[in-house]
Amino acid sequence: MIVGIYVVLYALYVYQQPRALSASAIAALFNNSAPLALAAAGQALVVISRGFDLSVAGVISLCNVTLAVYPMAGPGGALISVLICMAIGLLVGAVNGLLVAVLRMQSIAATLATMIICQGIALVILKAPGGTVADWIADEMTGRLWNAIPVSGLVVAIVVAVWLLIRRTNFGMAIYAIGADEQSASLSGMDTTRVRFLTYALAGVVYGLAGFMLSAQTATGNPTAGTPLLMLSFAAVALGGTSLAGGRGGLFASVMGAAVLMLLQKVLFSSGVSSFYTGVFQGAALILAVVLSGVLSRIGEAK
Amino acid sequence: MDDLRRVGETTLIATVHDAASTAADQRIAALSATGLRKAYGATVALAQADITLNAGTVHALLGENGAGKSTLVRILTGAAVPDAGEIVLHGQRYAPRNLIQARAQGVATAFQELSLVPNLSVAQNLLLPTLPRGPIGLVSSRRAREAGAAILARHGMERIDPTAEVGLLPLAERQRIEIVRAIENAGRVLILDEPTASLAETEWLFERIRMVTAKGVAVLYISHRLAEVREICGEATVLRNGNSIASVSLEEATDEDIFEMMVGRRLDRTSRHRTSLAQTAGPTRLSVKGLGGHGLSDISFDLRPGEVLGLAALEGQGQRALFRMLAGIEKAERGETAIDGMAANLSSPRRALRIGSGVAYLPEERKTEGVLAGLSAATNVVLPIMSAAAFAAVITPQAELSAARPASGKVEMNARYLSFAIGDLSGGNQQKALVARTLATAAKTLLLHDPTRGVDVGTKQSIYAAIRSFAAEGGAVLFYSSELAEIVQLADRCLVLYGGRISQTFEGEAIAEQALVAAILGHAPSARARA
After folding, report:
1. H helical segments located in B367-504
2. B276 contacts: CB under 8 Å, gap ≥ 6
3. Candidates A168, A189, A190; nearest CB to B139
4. Least confident stretch, B263-272, B333-342, B476-485
5. B130 inside 8 A of chain A by CB
6. Which of A68, A183, B163, B211 gives A131 a disulfide partner, CB atoms 3.0 to 4.6 angstroms apart?
7. Which of residues 67-96 of B touch A (CB under 8 A)?
8. Residue ranges per domain, chain A?
9. CA triplet A213, A219, A220: central angle to 5 degrees?
10. With respect to CATH, is domain B285-358+443-531 assigned 3.40.50.300?
11. pLDDT in tens, B8-39
12. Which CATH class is domain A2-302?
């Protein structure tokens, strides 16, 4: 359903801006959406396992300032940078996993704490917005491969593809199982602690990628770069039809949810609606989508 | 008593063989536990428990709720680690730290509260935690489906689609799947905790049990239904207050002996009392005409003050929908309902409670529909009358306790338990609290969906007494029970639901177990039953 919404919205966008069909405009749209799409992808993992992860904002900010303060030139530097970002995400995710899965803290409390810590560290690294992300990253990661395929879209596609593989493993199935009924999952012989830990760690890695892509897009550092993505990542997950109560939903739908939110921004902008109203429309779209999907699934069940 | 204990000792003497020995010898101790003890803080759940399961036999575990049965099961499945005592499994020390280790050693359990993951398919649930892999190492849904279908076929359940989502199946089918999964994992010991709680007939289950015992698996069978236990089990261990009182051969012990061991006193057999028809003539409390929808059609009956009306049916004949419609949870599609002679629009449970003299509902599933596990038992009891317990809109724990006491007294619930979180109480006490909640509403009509499901003999008697005295005071009760004996004992009149319709009605002495069995299986009503 979320894909349908996107298509309709995109048609509207093209109608308003015929140039939107050009390769560069499409690439710009992908670049715009990629950070939120990745943040939503990681969030979806945690939400499916019945949890909430606020640390997404902290990880993205931390990655962003790291890349802006310690730029590394060239493709080799970019490779090291992306690995650093994923490592930061993995570390924070592992801490979240430890707190939630092993120490049994409530996920909101645990990830709120790690988010605050990360943002604190980000402020220590970079006091005020500034710095420059390495040119290679800022140019190549927002460019197009063979002048056609947007790199940012490719990164998101790889994450989704990896997820589709993971989903077809015992671990992938276990994420859904513990999201629906942790006790039953454990009585069915699953190691729920391990699954939950790995879920947070994996989500952290995806947030790291989101931070990397955001830095490529903005090309500069900002210690609060991740904050706007926090609530939007939940909105994207819910918009994609993933149940915030856990056990249902998917990564791709959440990515599409993110894409819809970002496209909505563009459509509003090209319609001449003041950007102050963007939030109002995004929120309304979220309510509409969730209500609509509820109605649709009820019709589906009635059949 | 002493005699019984001696009988128990003889069955306890068993030789320990190694795992390779065959099932031919019926007296091989598959599992033998001695001196098990487990305390949770100050509460001693299990004080001193000994039990020996012989390979290829079915052993019953009997005891009131709170006697320590669940704790013993938790220890055997690895969910709890005992403070003292040891277990020997096929000659080797057995001390599982978790369920996975227990399974690895061939001990598997079908849990009373079911442990299926609702959003996974039947096949996935049967194969958890490891699904078969395809050629490139990923989980193969085709192989999972085939393996699941093979398991279902092995147990005569081809009718179930292995790809169906478990959460959407009826309770009885879920229970069967839980049992099948345990059987598949039980190489040495199979533990069945209340396996028939949701099954209307035992034939299928007993066939499965005979199949596993033939392979030399020892079965521990936990049930409150003594008749059933006698049918399938050879011997029984009775627990009381955390102690194993005795292990007896069921052929030699009478029901009274067993009751005595369970409760420590002989049950006084209250003679069965039925309200005479003269008493029940007069206005109706609840009148239902042509009710339909949710699989039901043309349901009509009257419920009068002082009457206890039973509902007998196999699993899934529409009883759940009927109760939910009358309680205001689901909307009826056709038909009329009147309370105290006035047409009633049952749009919500809150509304049902307030129409006329009120209708209170006891839901079927205690865990998911009934208790609020984190709150105290007192809070759970007084929920519907919160405002009455409040002083200037402020509710103090003391006010709750005193408001909950009268209702909890009616179900003979120990007042000491009222301040405990209800989730920490035994199933029997939880059920008592829920029955007390329906009584506390002061509604004059009670809808009780399987009020004694999974509770022990003592609790059952308390709930029966509460229902009888409620009716004697002019209340009206409609109850469904999966146990026909209960309907025979309690009901003044009995409706039989079959295929969504009321197929027969029995009254007074015509309510007998054999007649009801025939009726719920859909046999045509005989002239005698119509009388």
Report:
1. 377-382, 386-389, 397-410, 427-440, 457-472, 484-490
2. none
3. A168
4. B263-272
5. yes
6. A68
7. 79
8. 2-302
9. 115
10. yes
11. 333 333 333 333 344 444 467 889 999 999 98
12. mainly alpha
